[in-house]
Design a protein that fits this description.
The complex is a heterodimer. In chain A, about 40% of the residues lie in helices and about 25% in strands. Chain A is of the alpha/beta class. Chain A has 2 domains: about 180 residues, Rossmann fold; about 80 residues, no CATH class. Chain B is mainly α. The longest helix of chain B has about 35 residues. In chain B, the strands form 2 sheets. In chain B, strands 1-3-2 form a 3-stranded mixed beta sheet. In chain B, strand 4 and strand 5 form a beta hairpin. Chain B contains 15 helices and 5 strands. In chain B, about 40% of the residues are buried. The chains are: A alpha/beta, B mainly alpha.
């Protein structure tokens, strides 16, 4: 199911060089380098506390790395504010769903189009033709995206009233509204049963192909990781301990020790 | 993923909301016209008893004052209700609006003789600019002040923001109170910018075209205030459904997620602050006209709190709810409590001073609202949902957690 790395596009959507993040005396991420090739699907795994989410937060601009830099396409985005990085095409979902609960599904998606829209106070108040057109187009895009993730029927519902699965989909739809070049998914299958997870793997492939973007996953479910990823990076205690295709990672001794070795049951399953 | 078309098109919901708003707008217009017609034509032709009754319970001057409060409450609603930024110093903008009127339509700067479509006779000392241009000037000035005050303040999070805005709400009226001797350290001399505690009186009357409103043309004053209020309502409703309104709500709902979705936090919050401040400025000009001048003592902390109470009582975020909250509370404040008191006293032969219990009552109303109806009298459907029903994920999270662990 996973494509070979060598046949993919050559340019990198995202390059992180020697990233370190230190909180007080605690080294959360230590000298990690990492690339996401364009239109690839890569995963970041590691035991709890390995620094995965911290690393995510560095990429999206929430933390400025203590050292190292992040390049997004040709642009240096180290230390740039999150909303700028997002508007350049870095979209994410959250480990604990963070939708705008008291806004409709459609509004949620439209919020993410903010940076692509131009209407100001004046043109909104007086409903100038340009603003009306922009608003209408944004609404159409939102509907298309809700359709794409399969929850168009929830369009007018408040996000907080959607079912758990639909909320996860809405988060993806909202992220896609940024027209991202890279989509970061933070534990997207948490709370899904095996069938749902399997469908999710197909979904990620579909997103990648149809939206022509690269996907970076943080994931705990090893069956999902092994099926979906073209390349896997393993973090442990803030350090990169392994990188490679699913097959390499499965047989990597350090990974088994650091990650899978903790639970014999899981190790044998993978 | 294939059941997209099963449930009805949400188009209807969207349209439903728009027509709902249109209905209210027509309602406000009709009500304003009715009030004007009643006080202008109907009442004078009725017998004296009815006139006395109306003039003691709801005199036109109180109606006018209620409109001023409403305009300001709507502005505060943008900041607190839409964008979720707690502002305890909103009176600052009311004061700035009032003083803009004081500077631009009075004899305060008596060595200047500036007259731009102003109402007094040519050659009158001071700056005399047309009332409608003063509204524009106040709008611009308060917007700038909103940005100026907001830029350092809005970096703070909730409680700290509330405290700092509280500070600005104290500083600005103090500046006006002491601004009569700028440039000197002693109590006299220097540049008289604000005329100190005496305030700036009188201000020129409102003009409609070539016609000057006299001090007793309260019905026409009402018409002008209602027009300003209508403009503010219009702006609120339009912004709410557009790009900026969505960003405000997103920030209120989840600031971090909003920034991750490309919403610039500072700029969006500043916009809320500036637009809210403009309404406060317009209200300030209207208030100056209503009172016939500006007095620094009228801009105290209790105004910020009363406005906040109006927003909370009406239903945070809902333009119509806030309007009703503002009308009810400002009526109680200006006239209602006094009348209820005197009626009570004459019926039961007591002599309680009801108006002195004003703030006790506001406090009581706020406490009771928080206990029994936190979403306000006329809540926005969203807020009601938040406060009345647990969200679906809250209810189902127990199961989800278990699933998550076993996965």
């Amino acid at each position: 199911m996973s494509a070979d790395l060598g046949t993919g596009p050559v340019s990198n959507a995202l390059t992180a060089d020697n990233i370190s993040v230190v909180f007080g005396g605690l080294v959360a991420v230590n000298d990690v380098s990492f690339t996401i090739p364009d239109q690839s699907i890569v995963s970041l795994i590691g035991p709890n506390g390995a620094g995965k989410t911290t690393f995510f937060n560095v990429l999206t601009g929430l933390y400025t790395p203590t050292s190292g830099d992040v390049r997004f396409g040709d642009r240096d985005i180290t230390g740039q504010p999150p909303h700028k990085i997002a508007s350049w095409g870095m979209a994410r979902t959250f480990q604990n769903i963070r939708l705008f609960g008291l806004m409709t599904a459609e509004e949620n998606v439209m919020v993410a189009m903010h940076s692509h829209m131009r209407a100001g106070i004046f043109s909104t108040v007086f409903g100038l033709p340009k603003q009306r057109r922009e608003e209408k187009e944004a609404r159409e895009v939102a509907v298309d995206l809700l359709d794409f993730v399969g929850i168009n029927h929830t369009r007018g519902e408040y996000a907080r009233n959607l079912s758990y699965g639909d909320q996860r989909r809405l988060e993806v739809a909202r992220a896609l509204a940024l027209k991202p070049r890279v989509l970061l998914l933070d534990e997207p299958t948490a709370g899904m049963n095996p069938q749902e997870s399997a469908r999710f793997v197909e979904f990620v492939h579909r997103v990648r192909t149809e939206k022509k973007l690269a996907v970076l996953l943080i994931e705990h479910d090893m069956s999902v990781v092994m099926r979906v990823s073209e390349r896997i990076t393993v973090l442990d205690r803030g350090e990169k301990i392994a990188e490679g295709g699913p097959a390499d990672i499965k047989s990597n001794q350090r990974v088994i020790e650091a990650y899978l070795g903790k639970s014999g049951a899981e190790a044998s399953e993978v | 993923m294939a059941t997209a078309e099963l449930v009805g098109p949400p188009e209807t919901r969207e349209h439903g909301r728009l027509t709902h708003n249109a209905r209210w707008a027509i309602g406000f217009g009709t009500a304003a016209v009715l009030i004007f017609v009643t006080y202008h034509w109907v009442l004078p032709s009725l017998n004296a008893n009815i006139n006395t009754f109306v003039n003691s319970w709801l005199p036109l001057s109180v109606v006018d004052e209620c409109m001023v409060w409403m305009i300001c409450a709507l502005g505060l609603n943008i900041v607190v209700g839409f964008a979720g930024l707690l502002d305890l110093g909103y009176v600052a903008f009311w004061a700035i609006g009032g003083y803009t009127a004081g500077w631009l339509i009075s004899g305060q700067f008596y060595n200047l003789k500036i007259d731009i479509f102003g109402s007094p006779a040519a050659g009158t000392p001071g700056i005399h600019i047309n009332f409608w241009l003063v509204l524009v000037a106040a709008a611009i000035l308060t917007a700038l002040m909103g940005i100026l005050i907001g830029a350092p303040t809005l970096r703070l999070k909730s409680d700290y923001l509330a405290l700092v805005t509280l500070g600005f709400g104290e500083i600005i009226p103090q500046f006006f109170k002491n601004g009569d001797h700028l440039g000197t350290l002693s109590g006299s001399g220097g540049f008289d910018f604000t005329h100190g505690e005496r305030g700036i009186t009188p201000v020129d009357p409102i003009t409609i075209g070539p016609w000057k409103l006299g001090p007793f043309d309260l019905d026409w004053q009402f018409a002008v205030f209602a027009a300003i209020a209508a403009f503010v309502i219009f702006v609120c409703l339009r912004l709410r459904v557009g790009r900026l309104g969505r960003a405000w709500l997103a920030i209120r709902e989840d600031e971090l997620a909003a920034s991750m979705m490309g919403v610039p936090l500072m700029r969006t919050k500043l916009a809320a602050y500036a637009v809210g401040a403009v309404a406060g400025g317009l209200g300030g000009v209207a208030f100056a006209e209503h009172v016939g001048g500006v007095l620094p003592d009228s801009f105290d902390f209790s105004i910020s709190i009363t406005l906040l109470a109006m927003v909370v009582l009406g239903g945070m975020g809902n333009v119509w709810g806030v309007m009703i909250g503002a009308l009810v509370l400002s009526w109680i404040n200006a006239n209602g409590l006094k009348q209820v008191g005197s009626t009570f006293n004459s019926t039961f032969g007591t002599s309680w001073d009801f108006p002195s219990y004003n703030y006790l009552m506001f406090g009581l109303i706020l406490v009771l609202m928080m206990l029994f109806r936190r979403e306000g009298l006329l809540p926005e459907s969203r807020t009601k949902l938040l406060l009345r029903e647990p969200s679906r994920t809250d209810v189902e999270s127990v199961g989800a957690d278990l699933e998550g662990e076993s996965a």
